[in-house]
Design brief:
alpha+beta; 5-stranded antiparallel β-sheet
């Protein structure tokens, strides 16, 4: 049985140390190994068959007056006490005996029943009063702690707490590592207490499968895990496990069982599965470098069934004009056991691909992109750099973010974009909100835009055709649908308005950039 926590449980050794019994100079004759037995009550008896009045856990006090003299009767006396589960037999050596009978010693040795003698007279009634007061006080304390546990988890249920908070609360109340696993023996939530997460999760699936699943709360397996199922109406979803440190107590059992019940309700309330929450949480920790160490991040990923060892990693961002949750669900199914998938915002899904060393990443990203396009034709997939260490994944996500920021709105001509696809127009798109960029456009071609607006001219399109043709006047005139003579006149007017030499390469570059920025600003 688990022991109580908080107030120390009362044991045989603890009772013997009380002043009221210590005054009798107690001596352990037999059963020293049983002094840690719990004392649930004290029973004074002068009967030859006291066992019929016992329920187990009692410290039996006797003066020895009624003890039978026949060896077989002594053996029966001890057998009955042992069978009912008496904690110990205390014999006062004052009235009938001055040393314990050999028959009694042998009988207690045979049944491993602790036998304690008292050399001095002790007031047995006072002993019962002191011990019973302590026992009842402990029971009251146990009830108080149990009620506090129930109140805490009830509050979590009433406010709709998620599974992470439920598990975290169990850890805070017991100071033990708690793990929630699914039916595939994947650790979907791990809250470490006295050990690092990588130690707690090392080879998790292998260790979990070695710990048999039971229908009730029980200490199980080679490591002595305290485990209880999480289920609803006979359908099991997984189990919650408490890893050992010191021996488990009754409070640990209560906390674990209430946590399992609260997790059941949380699963019924929240539509997102444990696995999706776990993937999202671990993904964000890795992307934002919120883990204690890359080793811990690798252990958490491995405990979710991902091939974190001897792998390379690639960050991918999937931007959708619709709901990111739908795309996340689809990609989770498509990339099962090869990627962490989670929503970053309402319209962005993050993906971390786990690749075998030497495996080309392009085919995996193409599969991802096609799946996402099938769900939403408007998605844009941006790829970061491939890295070989989880510690560098944040850099891959930053690069994917820069690519996503540079991709022009409505760009769906490619299955995915990477940094090498980002040209000048994309770079300018990322700078469009900078006031210095907006000012540059106005200084370079603002007067030209205003002139066309006031006079109904088409100087701006002419400048665009001329610059796009790299200064080739014949091509520019053909593209604008005007004669060369008209083109020459417009170019001279452009040079006067803009105060630029259109034959100078640097001036043409400045104006071309300004036109590209104008397009970006106009969307």
């Amino acid at each position: 049985m688990p022991e109580n926590q908080g107030s120390a449980p009362l044991t045989v050794a603890g009772v013997l140390a009380l002043p009221v019994l210590a005054a009798g100079l107690p001596e352990v004759v037999v059963g020293g190994a049983g002094l840690d037995r719990l004392v649930r009550w004290v029973h004074i008896t002068e009967l030859t068959d006291p066992a019929s009045f016992l329920k187990g856990g009692e410290l039996v006090l006797t003066t020895g007056v009624p003890l039978p003299g026949d060896t077989s009767q002594v053996r029966r006396y001890v057998d009955e006490l042992a069978d009912v589960g008496a904690a110990a037999l205390v014999l006062e050596l004052v009235r009938r005996f001055h040393r314990p009978p050999d028959d009694l010693i042998r009988a207690c040795q045979a049944r491993r029943l602790p036998l304690i003698t008292l050399a001095r007279d002790v007031n047995f009634l006072e002993v019962t009063q002191v011990v019973h007061t302590l026992i009842l006080g402990n029971q009251t304390e146990v009830l108080r702690r149990t009620q506090k546990i129930h109140d805490t988890f009830t509050a979590l249920t009433l406010r709709g707490a998620g599974p992470e908070e439920v598990v975290r609360t169990a850890v805070e109340m017991t100071h033990r590592t708690v793990v929630l696993e699914n039916l595939a023996h994947q650790a979907v939530i791990c809250e470490p207490a006295d050990v690092d997460a990588e130690v707690a999760l090392e080879r998790w699936e292998q260790r979990s499968r070695a710990t048999v699943v039971k229908d009730r709360t029980e200490v199980l397996g080679p490591e002595g895990w305290l485990a209880t199922p999480v289920e609803f109406q006979g359908e099991r979803w997984g189990r919650v496990v408490m890893l050992p440190g010191k021996s488990f107590g009754a409070d640990d059992v209560t906390v674990l069982e209430r946590a399992a019940m609260t997790l059941t309700i949380a699963r019924l309330i929240h539509s997102t599965s444990w696995e999706r929450n776990a993937h999202r949480s671990v993904l964000q920790e890795i992307a934002e470098q919120r883990y204690r160490s890359p080793t811990e991040a690798r252990a958490r990923a491995a405990a979710l069934g991902l091939p974190a060892a001897d792998a390379s990693f690639l960050a991918v961002l999937v931007d959708t004009p619709r709901s990111a949750t739908e795309v996340e669900t689809l990609l989770s199914q498509t990339l099962e056991r090869t990627a962490l998938v989670g929503t970053f915002t309402d319209q962005r899904v993050g993906v971390l691909l786990f690749l075998r060393r030497g495996q080309p990443w392009q085919s995996a990203v193409e599969l991802l992109s096609r799946a996402a396009r099938a769900q939403d034709a408007g998605v844009v997939v941006s790829v970061g750099c491939e890295v070989t260490d989880l510690a560098h994944v944040a850099r891959s996500f930053r690069e994917a973010g820069r690519v996503a920021e540079a991709v022009l709105p409505g760009s769906t001509d490619r299955l995915f974009y990477q940094l090498s696809d980002i040209g000048l127009r994309h770079l300018l798109h990322t700078l469009r909100d900078d006031i210095r960029v907006q000012d540059y456009v106005e200084r370079q071609i603002g007067r030209l835009v205003e002139h066309d607006a006031r006079h109904g001219t088409e100087l701006l399109p002419t400048l665009r055709h001329y610059l796009d043709a790299a200064g080739n006047k014949t091509i520019a005139a053909r593209r604008g649908g005007i004669s060369r003579q008209t083109l020459y006149e417009r170019l001279r007017l452009l040079e006067r308005l803009l105060e630029r030499d259109l034959e100078a390469g640097e001036h043409r570059t400045e104006l071309h950039v300004a036109l590209l920025l104008l397009d970006v600003l106009r969307g």
